[in-house]
Amino acid sequence: MPYVAVAIGGFFGAILRFSVSEWLGTWNGLNIATLLTNWCGCLVLSWLNTVTSEQLPIHPHVRLALGTGLIGAFTTFSTFTVDAWKLFQNGQIGLSLAYVLLSVLGSLLFTYLGFKIATTRFFSRRAGV
């Protein structure tokens, strides 16, 4: 059953990821869609893990479907690295480096924000904690 949960979440995450990529595309060779999906994924996964482990326990299969499946398929490290490499190969070394830094530092920032949102007093009171 855990595999089915991950597969179902992954199906929807992959479709969502593809839709965002089609909608946002690239800018001057920079894959904005990958950058934003990875940032959003960090925010949501951090929030989800914090909320479901500390405030609102959910069934492990639901957690797998949402975290590993949906968010895992929505975000992508491999696309990020290929995009950075393409920029580098095309001679856009500064843009490649900026993309790597924005991706890593932005992902850490959004992970922190997801945690902070999940642990705010407002959310904790509404969840009954």
UniProtKB/TrEMBL annotation:
Protein name: Fluoride-specific ion channel FluC
Cell membrane in keyword set: yes
Function as written in the Swiss-Prot or TrEMBL entry: Fluoride-specific ion channel. Important for reducing fluoride concentration in the cell, thus reducing its toxicity.
Signal sequence coordinates: none
Keyword Lipid biosynthesis part of the UniProt annotation: no
Topology of this chain in the membrane: Multi-pass membrane protein
Catalyzed reaction equations: fluoride(in) = fluoride(out)
Activity regulation as described: Na(+) is not transported, but it plays an essential structural role and its presence is essential for fluoride channel function.
Sequence similarity: Belongs to the fluoride channel Fluc/FEX (TC 1.A.43) family.
The species this protein was found in: Alicyclobacillus fodiniaquatilis
Main location, first listed in the record: membrane
Record key words, sorted: Cell membrane, Ion channel, Ion transport, Membrane, Metal-binding, Sodium, Transmembrane, Transmembrane helix, Transport
Localization per record: Cell membrane
Binding-site residues for Na(+), renumbered to this chain: G72, T75
TM stretches of this protein: 31-50, 62-81, 93-115
